[in-house]
Amino acid sequence: MLFATGCHQTASMFYQPPTPAQMLGQSVDQFNEVQERNAEAAKFTIYVHEFDENFSEDGKSYGGVRLTEDGEDHVRQIASAIRGGAHFPVVIERGWTSTRGGTAWNYPVHLNAELDNRRREVVVRALAHMGIADAAQRVSVAPALVHPLSGVEGENAYRRSLNSGQNQQSGGFGGGGGGGGGGLR
Predict the structure, then answer these.
(1) What does the pLDDT read at residue 110?
(2) Are residues 43 and 101 in the same domain?
(3) Which residues, including other chains, have CB under 8 Å from residue 128's CB and lie 6 or more apart?
(4) pLDDT reported for residue 163
(5) 160-174 burial, b for 16+ CB within 10 Å, e for fewer?
């Protein structure tokens, strides 16, 4: 009997109660926060399609680059966010849209660092004009943080969104849309 009591006391000295269970969803909070930060950072990327070539009224190219109207609006939003305390770098997407002489088919699928740097300078000047003092240090040329969908992926996403909308309108829950019910590859 003494032996059994002694073991029990020894065992209780080493017993550690289990850690309390986490609240439901708490284990994924960190991942969600990282995704939110990445999404905010992606808003500071200015894409190739937000730039145009400068043309004169007679249709001749000045050889310069300018922001489209949508690009100007985007840069205004970025400047406003920076003035509001945002600390993300501004990224100019590298363009894969230049031709290279001497290639067999002359397709516009090549990088052009000179053109990318001209785009960068346009954005730096615009941000500086809007009162962003450290615009030159904040703006860089790099691959976009978000990769666009391919044509096939875009078509599939569009079809899933249509199917999802029809299922929601008819009161069903749908298997093809929104939350990834269409299947992952």
Answers:
(1) 86
(2) yes
(3) 135, 136
(4) 83
(5) beebbeebeeeeeeb
What pLDDT does residue 139 have?
98
Task: Write down the pLDDT at residue 142.
Answer: 94
State both tokens at 137: 């240090």
Same-domain status, 79 and 106: yes
**Half-sphere exposure in the Cβ direction for 185 (13 Å, CA):** 3
Whether 3 is covered by a domain: the verdict is no
Confidence (pLDDT) at 181:
45
Angle at 31 between CA 26 and CA 36, to 5 degrees: 115
**Same domain, yes or no: 134 and 157:** no
Please give the residue range of the domain that contains residue 166: 149-178
- Give the residues of the chain that fall short of pLDDT 70: 1-11, 55-56, 59-63, 165-185
Contact 139, 127 (CB under 8 A): yes
Distance between CA atoms of residues 119 and 43, nearest Å: 17
